[in-house]
Amino acid sequence: MRLDIKELSLPKKYRIVLFIALPALILLASYFLIFSSQWQETDRLKGEIRKGRQELSKVTAAKNNIEKARKECNQIRADLQDLIRQMPEEKEIPGLLRQVSLTAQETKTKIKYFAPKSPEARELYSELPFEIKYSAPYHSVGYFFDGIRKLERIVQVASFTLDSREVGQKVLLEGTCTAKTYIFQKEPQKEKSDGKKKGEKKDGKNVPAKK
């Protein structure tokens, strides 16, 4: 069926408007029909891009957190190694004695004896007390204690005594010092039970544990 605008019984001005508007309406309808699917695809792609950016942000944040955690872990390892150097896992009494002797030589302090005592267990470390008997000029004693405090290994002076005596025209200080160092333990100390264990023998007989 052919539509002829001239055959329509409309005033001339309306026919002119219809003549101009009808092709425009046809083009507009065609435009929407053709490009509406592309708009939908564009919106879908925009949504995918936004989603991808969000995922990328999450991955980037996770990566930054991993890097931060790795740096913190490395710092903890370094701190632990530094702590182990200050609190060795073994007693190392000869090494400690060498450090104390070297400090004494540098400060002109004479060590008369060095006597380690029994270690005292704690949860994560053990305290290793020791006693030193020394003699030195007045100022050397202060330098000696300061040198002990600055040793790589942690050494804490708990108590000390001082006596003075004259040697010629000089005053010599003598005394004893009780100090303690620390031993690092990989595993916490297990508390010992005060009661007797089951199956413990006494006079050749099994003694059951008290309930």
SSE topology sketch:
Layout: H1 12-86, H2 93-106, E1 110-116, E2 120-121, E3 125-137, H3 138-149, E4 155-160, E5 163-167, E6 170-184, E7 200-202, E8 205-207
What is the 3D form?
Answer: rod-shaped
Write down the domain tally.
2
Helical/strand content category: alpha+beta
Sequence of secondary-structure elements: HHEEEHEEEEE
Strand content: 25-35%
CATH architecture of the largest domain: 2-Layer Sandwich
Number of helices: 3
Mean pLDDT: 75
Helix share, percent:
40-55%
Assign the CATH superfamily of the largest domain: Ribosomal protein S6/Translation elongation factor EF1B
DSSP strand count: 8
Please tell me how large the radius of gyration is.
45 Å
Q: First CA to last CA: what distance?
A: 110 Å
What do we call the CATH topology of the largest domain?
Alpha-Beta Plaits
Q: Let me know the largest β-sheet.
A: 6 strands, antiparallel
User: Uncertain spans, ≥5 residues at pLDDT below 50?
Assistant: 191-211
CATH C-level class of the largest domain is Alpha Beta
Question: Could you explain how this protein is built, in words?
Answer:
A hairpin with a 2-residue loop joins strand 5 (163-167) and strand 6. The protein is of the alpha+beta class. Strands 1, 2, 3, 4, 5 and 6 form a 6-stranded antiparallel beta sheet that branches. Strands 7-8 form a two-stranded antiparallel ribbon. Helices cover 48% and strands 26% of the residues. Mean pLDDT is 75; it is low at 191-211. The termini are far apart. It has 2 domains: 8-86; 93-184, Alpha-Beta Plaits, CATH 3.30.70.
